[in-house]
Amino acid sequence: MDRPNYITPAGYAALKAEYDALFGTERPHIVEVISWAAGNGDRSENGDYLYGRKRLREIDRRLGWLARRMKAAKVVDPAMQEDRGRVFFGATVTIADEEDNHRTVTLVGDDEADAAQGRIGWNAPIARALRGAGVGDLRRVTLPGGEREYEVMTVRYP
């Protein structure tokens, strides 16, 4: 990875919890099902065996991805931010567009982004445009729907 994988402590805990659940609970259960199914004889038409092997590959692939993301993670606690007047990682920002529509977003790690919940990834176009902005600053963002200009209304940290 060429750039750090910034993540909040809560985001890292969620990745770790998923890893632990897959590795400690789901994977051993699937291995047990595969072992049982293999003991039943013909594996070529054994649905439990075939599905179990497929699911095991999916789990192992996800475990590898989670392990790489956690290894590259740089946990940043937004509550420890010193300059609370500017937009940096973890900031909750209220912005207004040209039509005075207000929107509140929180800049989080790319692995914990959820636009429906107002959490946008640190490397998203709008997040890149807002970095370093203070209250009252205007920022222009090129989005798939065209270019938009936003004014920073408030900046908060937990």
TrEMBL record:
Any coiled-coil regions, as ranges: none
Keywords on record: DNA-binding, Elongation factor, Protein biosynthesis, Transcription, Transcription regulation
Name of this chain's protein: Transcription elongation factor GreB
Alphabetized PANTHER family for the sequence: TRANSCRIPTION ELONGATION FACTOR GREA, TRANSCRIPTION ELONGATION FACTOR GREB
A Pfam cross-reference name: GreA_GreB
Keyword Glycosyltransferase tagged: no
Domain Transcription elongation factor GreA/GreB C-terminal: 84-157
Sample GO molecular function, one term: RNA polymerase binding
Sequence similarity: Belongs to the GreA/GreB family. GreB subfamily.
Its biological purpose: Necessary for efficient RNA polymerase transcription elongation past template-encoded arresting sites. The arresting sites in DNA have the property of trapping a certain fraction of elongating RNA polymerases that pass through, resulting in locked ternary complexes. Cleavage of the nascent transcript by cleavage factors such as GreA or GreB allows the resumption of elongation from the new 3'terminus. GreB releases sequences of up to 9 nucleotides in length.
SUPFAM superfamilies: FKBP-like, GreA transcript cleavage protein, N-terminal domain
UniProt-listed HAMAP family: GreA_GreB, GreB
Single GO biological process annotation from the record: regulation of DNA-templated transcription elongation
Annotated TM spans: none
Keyword DNA-binding: yes
Domain Transcription elongation factor GreA/GreB N-terminal: 5-75
